[in-house]
């Protein structure tokens, strides 16, 4: 019954938000309360799961969100994103979504997905008119979504990729050799297909953007854009103004790569921690703007950033609460009992089964990494008897684990608020793009099975 009650809770939350226009925080909390009580967690257990899930998510991403949003506000006040977009518009123009999807999936998979979306969202909002005045932001949102999660599950050292490879006992080099081309191809093909759907009337500005946000030139406009530019800082070279983003990315990536190579140390691990790295980026951004503005000007920039941060933290935390209540319901154990790998199944069916298990687990639990890890835990004991190269089954799990990231994921709410999308808009971008990516990557995994069998 956990599956039925979870489905009712998720669907009810979506209907409350979209059809009845109930605030997402209230809708998600109602879903949490229903699910906790319906699955016999009791009043105390339900409250414990709600508060515990909120606190756990805040411990993981609270500072990342706060630091990232403030960095974005400070960089915007220096005209950094405006100047970067002008350069990108001249160099790649309408191909920017493809460039973003490719970059996020191949160059930055070592960066936490929460950091990726926090740092990429401001540039997407700023560059939307240069890409397409009508569909620029939703197209970039879809490209961001599939780029981030293709890298996360297919490309080492993405967290899910490393976890899947480890559980399936697949060497990281082997996983990367197969996963990198699959991840890149999935990101690019999905970005193209998503643009086709947008051209068929998928998007509606009136319902798919946050209605509290004013649109200007096809992109959201909020109070952070009313802060005067820091005139002297604007004259700094663009590369210097990008240091608050580049320094954290380099620190986090270096620490992740050295950790995989067993060459890390305490100093590298400390500086490469995402929270410390982003705080260093915030200090750099603050120093640049403080040098160029009076203290009142800096205060206005930070106040606007704090206003945005509070909203994101609350809805993200409640999204984590729903995920915790679902986990406490015993959903993972129920699904594990429902599925078992058949050692005599053909290769094609073994791949489909692995994909399906990961997809169902992710859809139910709300975490790509937890869905993938749970699926790998179910399948790994019998993978040796399937007659399929373990790397192929690992890639099938990665493919399925991307499927339909939706309202029971805290990332969904981060994505929604950072890009000023309504719940419906996020379902049309993040959920649809990850679902397309899961479907697009499946035949690529089947192709990989032929290559693996021939080698």
Task: Tell me what the structure shows.
InterPro entries: Glcn_transporter. The protein has a domain of 271 residues. Helix 3 packs across helix 6 and helix 4 crosses helix 6. Helix content is 76%, strand content 1%. It is mainly alpha-helical and 455 residues long. Strand 1 and strand 2 form a beta hairpin.
| Beta strand count | 2
Q: Using only CA atoms, what is the Rg? A: 22 Å
Biggest sheet strand order reads 1-2
Distance between the termini: 45 Å
Give the helices and strands as they follow along the chain. Answer: HHHHHHHHHHEEHHHHHHHHHHHH
Briefly, what is this?
With 455 residues, the chain is an all-alpha fold. The protein is 76% helix and 1% strand. The chain contains 22 helices and two strands.
Name some characteristics of this structure:
22 helices
Set out the fold topology.
Layout: H1 2-18, H2 24-38, H3 42-77, H4 80-91, H5 96-106, H6 113-131, H7 136-154, H8 159-167, H9 172-199, H10 205-208, E1 214-216, E2 219-221, H11 231-234, H12 238-241, H13 243-260, H14 266-272, H15 274-292, H16 295-328, H17 331-338, H18 347-365, H19 368-379, H20 390-401, H21 410-418, H22 423-454
Antiparallel strand pairs: 1-2
